[in-house]
Amino acid sequence: MSLNRMVIAAAAAAAMTAFLWGCKPKTTAVTVAAPVTGTVRVCYIPKNTGNPYFDAVNNGFTQASSALHFKYTEQAPATADATDQIPIIQQQVQDGVNVIAISPNSPEALDPAIRAAEQHGVRVITIDADLTGSEQLRSACVLPTDFNKLGASQIELIGSLMGYTGDFAILSATTDAPNQNAWIAGMKVALKLPKYAGMHLVEIAYGNDDPQKSLLEAQSLMTKYPHLKGILSPTTVGIAAAAQAVETGGAAGKVQVTGLGTPNQMRRFVLDGTVKKFALWDPAQMGYTAGYLAYGLARGTIHPAAGVSFTAGTEGIRVFGTNNVISNGPLMVFNKSNIGQYHF
Amino acid sequence: MKLKGIRWSHQFTLLLLIAVAFLVSVHMSRHFLDPAYLLTATTNFVETGLMALAMTFVILLGEIDLSVASNLALTAALSGVLWAHFGWPLPVACMVGLVVSAVAGLANGLLVTRLKLPSLTVTLGSMALLRGAAQVLIGNQSITGFPDWFAGVDQRVVGPFPAITLLLLVAAVAWWAVLTRTIRGRMTQATGANRAAARLSGISVEAITVRVFMVSGLMAGFCGLIMMSRVGAARWDMAQGRELDVITAVVLGGTDIAGGEASIPGTMLALILIAVMRTGMGLAEINPETQHVAVGILLAASIAIPNLLRMRNGQKAQPAK
Amino acid sequence: MQAFGDLLRKLVRSRESGVLAFLLLAFAVAAVLAPRFYSLQNLRNLLLDTPLVVTVGMGMTAVIVCRQIDLSVGSIVAVSGMVVGELYRAHPGLPTPVAMAAGVAVGVLLGMGNALLVTYLKVPSIITTLGTMSIYRGLAFVIGHGNQINPNDLPARLVSLSITSPIGVPFLALFALLIFVATHIFLSRSRWGRAVYATGGNPDAARLSGLSTNGIIAGSFITCGALAGLAGIMYASRFGFVNPAQTGTGFELQVIAATVIGGTQVTGGSGTAVGTLLGCILLAAIVNILTVAHLSGRWQLAAYGAIILVAIVADSAGRRQRVTVAA
After folding, report:
1. ipTM of the predicted structure?
2. Could B111 and C309 be called an inter-chain contact, meaning their C-beta atoms sit closer than 8 Å?
3. C147 touches chain B (CB under 8 A)
4. Domain A147-280 sits in which CATH superfamily?
């Protein structure tokens, strides 16, 4: 390319850029969300489609909607990609929903879309994960359980399975998943207690919540640490992959697997003895609570603030904490004797 | 002349399909027919459209570039990291990102021309390498908190029109003019139509191929900056799988995947068709899997049905290449 | 000694020498970076990580040798897995061979869809399979109404295929080995195999010499579909679940990458089953080494890309050298 042409190309590019970033932002008239008097419409946007965990949340929402008679829909992106949730938010706003409940794939990438939704008078609540750092953008957040206590209870779970001695590893989702990291930090604090002095955390592996990668990581943990006594995986994809790896590796009984999982995914491993016990909250209950919260927000009967409480149908009283976060319920521990009662 | 007739009819078919998709969307959702919303919705398709313009040239040459979406992610990740972690001024960081995106495109072009490697395999490799490089740079973090002057480029308007949508239209006209009105464009067309003949008539086939790949890379990088501004974040997994949407738009627009024939208006019409279908189906709460299926059927049918009709008329179908 | 020298010379000159060299290099690097790579358990892991890619890679080799491509294999794996899972849900006692036959049948049907579009309707294979990739993926959602097949829905005897067999090696690896041997014999020894190379190398000449090129192309797509269908049930066995969104996503690129690294030319007419097998092992080994060497998360994808590029560049350089030697 001759110098001349390069100058022309550069000038064209510069003009294009100047034009784009030189234009004025559009001014949007801000609509304040007024209490809805007609039928309340709520939409739930999970992280991705075909995910049993979010199917359970969806069931809870459906229950709440039939109890309170609001119109409820679920719209799931095909992949757990933050940008895939943006058009769905825009479409729901255009469709005139009153409340959007969302499990954000990446908090930051959704900020502009959520801000625009609020400006159109649509209330936004987050479920299962929060918009960390931009909490002011959403009305309230329903987290499944008290995240501050989760790390310690997970350590107790794996500790009791390993007899409180020996090597164990953590199989997490991604290196930067905010929930996972907060829980792991809690686990590390708990490990300093004298009770757990005999336990040694050898590695934190990351399976990216991808079944294949999680399986490879679980396999390689057992390869790298021949004396490994336990794998603790606080993510539903990871724990199922770890159980599968232990089962196919013929290490059942030698390597204990526990963490957070759904009963439907873990049932076979619990019944055949590969996994003795694991924990989770009830995701359907969380959806149910979120349904009551969404309805109350739309009707103007719930005004979130720290210390304020409301009744979530048959589940009882829920209280807002700091940043309008609700910690929904206790952790449940599933084992051979009770897993038959749970179907999610 | 006959070829031209076919191309015209293809664009006419696309126009008809757009009209049908539009009417069906209006019928399915009473919220569809809202100019303000439709204009906002166009901003979601600008990156795909810009990359499709560049891809039209790549496919015209009988080549393919699978690395565009990865190049987009790398440019965003690199610019973001230079700005956030190394404290470079944002404009400088963005310039460096653009240069790298062009160099990546150049590398694709050189591997294809100098080493005579098929572009399918070269860009399959660079698709993994560039996205992998983005992941090495920022891991699973998001880079956010861009200054106000940079963020929200999709919110900028000229009158009622989003600026980036206008930019796409201007770029399409420019691309069309280059392809049909300049010597360089004609040379590109000639190269795509018959490489050997083009070389014999003195056209530097290699230089054109390298340039087309470089422009494809640069365009992907520019889209990386747009997307970074639009969603207010840079991530390694941005626009994953978007290369398939881009190729779909180009092929649906009537550009022959084997090279030799390309239509910029076709590409734009195909993009509009996909945008109307996606937006309409989304508003009607049809789930994304079904939207993918509809676009997939459309893509296969757009070539199968004309072939079938041609066979019915006793003509020979264009052979699969 | 003379025989050994000949063998060595033949090996160095063969098309597969490049990928073999890379494989040896990878093993050498592993010895330094991650000695644990050589533990018995890890080699067994490797034996479990390759069968899926090898199985579908054999079909892909035939397709690419025919100068075509199949991007829909990942979606076929998902559809087949979902069908088999639903069958098990309805009939928990289903014998394994029947389930496998069902998976293969699904693959054959979907492969026939591709074949029909490519050969009869003359839609170029890259467009056909780009379209069917989306269509078949949608089908996977329809079959299970968007729900995944949980470990609980799959019988233990299916999972046991990934654990062992009467001779100690997991059944999954035996299937893949069998398919490799069959493909190798078919491509290199049979009349039909030569017809596949002829079709890809010079379609016009092949047609003029009386070969049914359409039939051969259709056959390669159906075979590739059938093998992807088999891989669907292998996936269910290996991972213990099938998810309509996750199962097989991105798998087509792994398979194509392994095939291409193994020396198969996307321009058609050349490629071998042995090369593809080595390509599959190389990719699996690299992922495995990176994981064992604690370099898993961030570096894997970049390493993958670099390997693909280096391998194809080296292959093209090697090819030119061979041409020079021959001339």
Report:
1. 0.89
2. yes
3. no
4. Response regulator (3.40.50.2300)
